[in-house]
Design brief:
The complex is a heterotrimer. By secondary structure, chain A is of the alpha+beta class. Chain A folds into three domains: 202 residues, Aldehyde ferredoxin oxidoreductase, N-terminal domain (Aldehyde Ferredoxin Oxidoreductase,  A, domain 1, 4-Layer Sandwich), CATH 3.60.9; 176 residues, Orthogonal Bundle (Aldehyde Ferredoxin Oxidoreductase Protein, subunit A, domain 2); 174 residues, Aldehyde Ferredoxin Oxidoreductase Protein, subunit A, domain 3 (Orthogonal Bundle). Helices cover 40% and strands 13% of the residues of chain A. Chain A has 26 helices and 19 strands. In chain A, strands 2-1-6-3-4-5 form a six-stranded mixed β-sheet, sandwiched between helices. A six-stranded mixed β-sheet of chain A has the order 8-7-12-9-10-11. In chain A, strands 14-15 form a two-stranded antiparallel sheet. In chain A, helix 1 packs across helix 2, helix 8 packs antiparallel against helix 22 and helix 12 packs parallel to helix 14. By secondary structure, chain B is α+β, with helices and mostly antiparallel strands. Chain B has one domain. Helices cover 11% and strands 26% of the residues of chain B. In chain B, strands 1-7 form a two-stranded antiparallel sheet. A two-stranded antiparallel ribbon of chain B has the order 3-4. A two-stranded antiparallel sheet of chain B has the order 5-6. In chain B, strand 5 and strand 6 form a beta hairpin. Chain C has one domain: Beta-grasp domain (Ubiquitin-like (UB roll), Roll). Helix content of chain C is 10%, strand content 28%. In chain C, strands 2-1-5-3-4 form a five-stranded mixed β-sheet, covered by helices on one side. In chain C, strand 3 and strand 4 form a beta hairpin. The N and C termini of chain C lie far apart (37 Å). The chains are: A alpha+beta, B alpha+beta, C mainly beta. At the A-B interface, helix 5, strand 13 and helix 8 of A face helix 1 and strand 2 of B. Strand 13 of chain A pairs antiparallel with strand 2 of chain B.
């Protein structure tokens, strides 16, 4: 096989044994990699009704098909399982260096089964696999864990070439918004995937690999890589603006068009946003850029607060963290944001869900529902110290952290205001106010993993194209016309051609699908056509939907938060209005070949080669 | 004569150079451990190192190097394939690797893929 | 008429001297368009980027008519999410 390593490492943590299986070429072609291959294995092997933190759940690390090939941004991979947060399917995307090292060790996927009786870590050094005691690492934060593991490697060059994924205290304490971190600052953040790793007593996965990854048609592959690099270089957006300001370069623009949420989605378009924009962090704190493996756009990098209560070196946050931990918590101090981001990375918590919980807590407090005596501190909007304290309390399940750690509306319900938790399927809502982009509203509601924006970035057409082109791509952000079609196409295409292949979604601003496809085709040597790849995406989407339905997630969960449904927009193109997701949803289900309850019909499943997989 | 100039301050650590180098030299294989350029990562900084002539024995007179206030063991940034470390030696065969500039005239693939322009071509005497 | 401009990223270099908080007030003829505003600020045609007025985005070559009191944001082409 080319591009794929061709092997799956299956680890039984209960028995402390492992097996190496072959990756079936037909399976690889159909499900490509990352969330695709992981989805099919979860669907076949994990009962969707089990306890996500019990022995029967499986934790899968699955690399994108192109990881390690040098395809442009070919690094993105997923951690997958049944989610302890949403109860549905979980797949959390991550880049960095760790996924490539796993591939160079010779594996496309690692499947963890069972529960270890004591804390362990998995060591992968090419063919040498060892399940080792990790008692001495339990309780350590993510940064300490990586440092200790590396310090125990005799050869400093081998240590430099060794990559680690681990959980911090949050994952250990089964916090349902915990992340799996790798390369210190790269987070597989969403769905509470870190709690699954914690439930298995698996502290870390350590990888070192010296094997080859091959490509099928090297000359054509090299050409397709250079074509993509050329397009990125020619794009000011991809080669200059994005590296300079990161994805948080969006903050100011989205604030102006009413997409940036403020104060738990209560307000929009406040001028204070400029104080905490990507521009503010780049100007005042960024030390240098850092990119993931084979990425020319390098949106990350260390950022330093030199003095004061938030002093320290952090990593540049991306847009979602900026939006949700900043303005949506009423915080306009970039130093508090950098500290909050760093604490989440250090303790292993999803910045997005954490921030959604903090903004909810702050509104509960300000509206008098949550007394100061319960919080043990003032929780007013804008209180950066409170943000940091709540993050720390959540990791250790102390104080309000005990409620926050359960995720979803747990905290809001305790204080009698469940609707003040802004989220979908118990997952905190992404940092885009749905009232100014109806396609994105439908996108977040239909995402198979919860309140997530990552499955189809409709804002490329609903917002960005209006200002930056291409003009023919621009669609009215607050019209329902054509949104279901557009969304479904983008979901299918992006799932297969971007996510499963291992490309970074951010790179699409410089390398659009026609430049991605040749890299996938020439590296794998699979005789794909573009439409076939897109159908693979549709198949994967339907399997995810089926998993969720079997887990008990239904049409009743495909719903916007009440605030976004009922309180009209105060600025932006949708001013005075709310999106009617219910109407769009009906049409979306129909287009997908699902019935009125959002259940894939037997005909649709048959068409996708999934006969007999219905409810 | 053209040579590769390294500006470490611009390197973002993406290691595209390592992937491109191995693909160039091994027909259809990508393997950073077989690359003739490696990105050394120390204290969140990146130092691309291009392999030079190999040596059969570890040297006896090492000096520390200071770059931007950061002190480095000379071995860390050394260009030679050497018995004391695994870099610039094929992992399976132990054969020493040396940069050949991807031919004559030079057209190094590492430079072609370096979006950060940490690697550029310069004319030297 | 007078319009307020808010400059972001590379467009900051086109602010009139002594501007504060990356903002300035610009005086234009009645009926002036976005293109006229770009010219008044000395932004060359090959300096690409978009604009937002009162929550609505316009492309760089828009001849949208400005009105007194408009607040216009200039942005470099951003991406991500």
């Amino acid at each position: 096989m080319h591009a794929w390593a061709g092997k799956i490492l299956r680890v039984d943590l209960s028995e402390r044994e492992y097996d190496i299986e072959d990756l079936d070429p037909y399976f690889a072609k159909m499900y490509i990699g990352a969330q695709g291959t992981a989805t099919r294995i979860l669907y076949d092997e994990v009962d969707p009704t089990i306890d996500a933190l019990g022995e029967e759940n499986k934790l899968i690390f699955s690399t994108g098909a192109l990881v390690g090939t040098g395809a442009v941004t070919g690094i993105r991979s997923v951690w997958a399982a049944k989610s302890p947060l949403t109860g549905g399917i979980a797949f959390s995307n991550v880049g960095g260096y760790f996924p490539a090292e796993v591939k160079f060790a010779g594996y496309d996927m690692i499947i963890f089964e069972g529960i270890a009786d004591d804390p362990v870590m998995l060591w992968i050094d090419d063919d040498e696999i060892e399940i080792m005691d990790a008692d001495h690492l339990w309780g350590k934060d993510v940064f300490e864990t990586e440092d200790i593991i590396k310090s125990e490697i005799d050869d400093p060059w081998k240590a430099m070439d060794t990559r680690i994924a681990s959980i911090g205290p949050a994952g250990e304490n089964l916090v349902k918004i915990a992340a799996i971190m790798s390369d210190k600052h790269r987070a597989a953040a969403r769905c509470g995937i870190g709690a699954v790793m914690g439930s298995k007593n698996l502290k870390a996965v350590v990888a070192h690999g010296t094997k080859d990854v091959s490509v099928a048609v090297p000359e054509a592959f090299n050409k397709s890589v250079n074509a993509a690099l050329g397009a990125i270089r020619a794009s000011e957006r991809a080669s200059k603006v994005f590296p300079a300001y990161g994805s948080a370069g969006l903050v100011n623009f989205y604030n102006e068009v009413g997409l940036l949420p403020h104060m738990n989605f209560k307000k929009m378009a406040l001028p204070e946003a400029h104080k905490i924009s990507g521009q503010a962090v780049a100007d005042g704190y960024l030390i240098r850029n850092q990119g993931c493996f084979s990425c020319p756009m390098s949106c990350g990098g260390p950022a330093e607060v030199k003095e004061g209560p938030f002093e320290g070196v952090s990593h540049r946050p991306e847009y979602e963290t900026h939006a949700l931990m900043g303005p949506n918590c009423g915080i306009y101090d970039p130093e508090a944001l950098l500290k909050g981001n760093n604490e989440c990375n250090r303790l292993g918590i999803d910045t997005m869900d954490m921030a959604c919980q903090v903004s909810c807590a702050m509104e509960l407090y300000e509206e008098g529902h949550l007394p100061e005596s319960d919080a043990g501190m003032k929780l007013n909007f804008g209180n950066g110290e409170a943000l940091v304290t709540l993050i720390q309390q959540t990791a250790y399940r102390e104080g309000l952290g005990e409620l926050i750690a359960e995720g979803g509306a747990t905290l809001a319900e305790k204080y009698g205001q469940p609707d003040l938790f802004i989220g979908v399927k118990k997952m905190g809502y992404a940092g885009y106010d749905a009232r100014n982009a109806y396609g994105m509203a439908l996108g977040v509601v239909t995402s198979t993993r919860g309140g997530c924006h990552c499955r189809a970035y409709t804002l490329v057409r609903e917002a960005l194209a209006h200002a930056f082109g291409p003009k023919e791509m621009a669609v009215d952000p607050v019209s329902m016309q054509g949104k279901a079609e557009m969304l479904m196409m983008m979901q299918n295409m992006q799932t297969a051609l971007v996510d499963c292949a291992g490309f970074c979604q951010f790179s699409m601003s410089g390398q659009p699908p026609p430049l991605l496809f040749p890299q996938l085709a020439t590296a794998t040597g699979v005789n794909y056509t573009m439409p076939e790849v897109v159908i693979n995406g549709e198949r994967i989407w339907n399997l995810q939907k089926m998993f969720n339905l079997k887990a008990g997630i239904t049409k009743a969960d495909d719903v916007l938060p009440k605030r976004l449904r009922e309180e009209p927009a105060t600025a932006g193109p949708g001013k005075g209005k709310n999106p009617d997701v219910e109407t769009m949803l009906k049409y979306y289900y129909m287009l997908r070949g699902w019935d009125e309850e959002g259940v894939p019909t037997p005909q649709k499943l048959a068409e996708l080669g999934l006969e007999g997989q219905g409810l | 004569m053209q040579r590769i100039r390294i500006d470490q301050a611009k390197c973002t650590g993406c290691r595209s150079c390592e992937a491109a180098c191995s693909l160039k030299h091994y027909e259809n294989e990508i393997n950073p451990k077989k690359s003739r350029i490696r990105v050394c990562m120390v204290a969140e900084r990146f130092y691309p190192v291009i392999s030079g002539p190999p040596t059969e024995a570890e040297c006896t007179s090492k000096v520390d190097v200071i770059i931007e206030g950061q002190e480095h063991d000379e071995c860390t940034l050394c260009r030679a394939a050497c018995p004391s470390r695994p870099w610039f030696r094929e992992p399976d065969t132990d054969i020493a690797l040396k940069c050949d500039f991807c031919g004559d005239p030079p057209e190094p693939h590492c430079v072609q893929v370096c979006a950060a322009e940490a690697l550029t071509m310069v004319e030297v005497q | 008429m007078q319009v307020e401009v808010k400059m972001f990223m590379k467009f900051r270099k086109y602010l009139p001297p002594d501007s504060k908080n990356d903002m300035a007030v610009i005086t234009l003829e009645e009926g002036a368009t976005l293109l006229d505003l770009r010219a008044a600020l000395g932004i060359p045609p090959d300096e690409h980027g978009g604009t937002v007025i009162d929550g609505v985005a316009y492309p760089e070559d828009s001849v949208h008519k400005l009105k007194d009191g408009d607040s216009v944001g200039f942005f470099a082409s951003v991406a991500g999410g």
